[in-house]
UniProtKB/TrEMBL annotation, chain A:
GO terms for biological process: phosphoenolpyruvate-dependent sugar phosphotransferase system. GO terms for cellular component: membrane. The keyword Cell inner membrane does not apply. This is Eii-gut: pts system glucitol/sorbitol-specific iic component. Keywords: Membrane, Transmembrane, Transmembrane helix. The chain crosses the membrane at residues 22-47, 67-87, 142-159. The keyword Heme does not apply.
TrEMBL record, chain B:
Residues 1-199 form the PTS EIIB type-5 domain. Pfam families: EIIBC-GUT_C, EIIBC-GUT_N. The modification Phosphocysteine is found at residue 72. GO terms for molecular function: protein-N(PI)-phosphohistidine-sugar phosphotransferase activity. This is PTS EIIB type-5 domain-containing protein. It comes from Lucifera butyrica. GO terms for cellular component: plasma membrane.
Amino acid sequence: MELLAGLANGFMELFKAGAETFAGWVAGIIPLIVVLMTAVSAVIKLIGEERVQSLAQKATKNIITRYTILPILSVLFLGNPMCYSFGRFVEEKHKPAFYDATVSFLHPVTGLFPHANGGELFVYMGIAAGITKLGLPLGDLAVRYFLVGIIIIFIRGIVTEKIYTSMKAKAK
Amino acid sequence: MYKAITISQGSGGWGGPLTIMPTDICNKIVSVTGGGIHPVAAKIAEMTGCEAIDGFTKSVPDDQILVAVVDCGGTARCGVYPKKKIFTVNLTPVGKVGPLAQYITENLYVSAVTESCLRYAGEGAILTSKEGLVAAGTGPRTAHSEPKTKAQARAEIAAMNVNKKRNIITRLGIGVGGVVNKFYQAGRETIDMVVKTILPFMAFVSMIIGIIKVSGIGNLIANTISPLASTLPGMLVISVVCSLPFISPVLGPGAVIAQVVGTLLGVEFGLGHIPAQYALPALFAINGQVGCDFVPVGLSLGEADPETIEMGVPAVLYSRLITGPLAVIIAYFFSFGMY
C-alpha cells in the first residue's frame, strides 16, 4: 500500500513541475500578449490592407526595398500565412527570393509585434522567458532581433535571387 | 477511366467524408508532404485513376488539383487549400484550427486520413459539393456573417440618405462606431488565437519541460546542448544542421521544433548555463530552417508560375546553407553590448 502511494506521489511529482511552468506562462505571458496583439491588430485594421498596397507596389522596383520594406509590410499587415500573397506584386523571377525574405521575418517580428505570427511565438518567447528569469529587460533583445532580422532578410533575398537566376540560366 | 471514391476521417480526425470524382481537367493528386509522394496520396491516385504529383518538385495550377494531401500540424497548410476551395486531406488529426480556420469546412477538408479510410463510392453516390454546405454554415461562419449583414444594412441606409446632408453628430457617431467595431474584432481574433494556438502549445511544452526537469533528462541537455549553444562555432554547427536541404523541410512544419528547442534553450538561459548575450545568435541558430517546409505553398499564394515553384524550392533550400550560418555570425556581432 505504501509502495503504491509512493508511486502515485512520484507520478504526480512528474507533472507538478510542468504545472508550475504552465501557470507561470499563462500568468506572465498571456495578459501582455492579449492586450498588445489586440492593440496592434486594431491599428492595422484601421489603416487597412488597401492603403498599404500602393506602397507595396512601389517597394518592388528597387532591390533594397523589395527585400526589406515589402516583406516587413506584408508580415505586419497580413501576418502568417497570408503575407506571401504580396508576392503577386513582384516579378516572377523575384518570387522565390521574396518568399525567402518574408518567411525569415516571421519570427524576428514577434518580439515587438506578436500579432503577426501568434501561432509561432515560442521561438522568441521561449528564449525570452529564460532572459526574463535572469531579471534582465527584454526590450534590447526584441529590438535587436527585429533589426538583425531586417539585415538578414535583405541578405537572404539577394542570395536567393542570385541562386535562382543562375539555376534558371543553367536549366536553359 | 476515372472512379469516384469516398475519403472519411481516421481516428481522432475531423471533417469529411468527401466523395470525389476526377474530371478531365481536374485530375491531379498533389502531395504536399515533403519526402516524395505520400502513400495515401498514391493510393488516392491509384483508386481514382488520377496522377499523383509531389508538390515540392512540381507545381500544378489550382484548377487541376482534385485533392491536396498535406501533413499539417495546424498552422497554415491545412487552411491554405480549403481557402482556395480545393479538397484537402490532412494526414495529421487536426480540426478547424490555425489562422485560416474559418475556411476549413467539413465539405472541403478531412483529417487523420490513412489508407484504410479510402473506399470506392457506391453506384449513384452523391458527390460532395464544394459550395452547398458552405451556405448552411457552421458556428464561426455565421458569427462572421453577422457583422456583414449589419454592414449591408448600414450601406442601404446610407444609400437612402445619400441626398440628405448628414450632420456632424451623425458622421461622428458612424465614425466612432466603425473604430470601436474594429477594436472589438481585433480583440475577438486575439482571444481566438490565444485559445486555439497559444494555450495548446503552452500546455504541450510545459508538460514536456516538467518531465524533463524532474526525470533528469534536463541534466543531460544541460551537459550537451548548453556547451554547444554557448560558443559561436557550436551555434554555427546547429545552424548548418538545421539548414541542410534534406533536413530543413522536415524540421519546418509549424515551427514546432524551433519553438520546442527555443523553450528548452530558454530554460538553460534562465539557469545561467548559457550567457545571456548569446540569446540573439541562438534565435537565428535554431531557426535556419524557417519556412523550408512551406516554399511551394507560399509561392503559390504569391501567384507564382508552376515553373518558378519547381526551381524556387531548391533555390531557397540551397540559399539557406549560406544564409543560415551567416545569420548566426551577424547576430553574434550585433549581440555585443547587450546585457
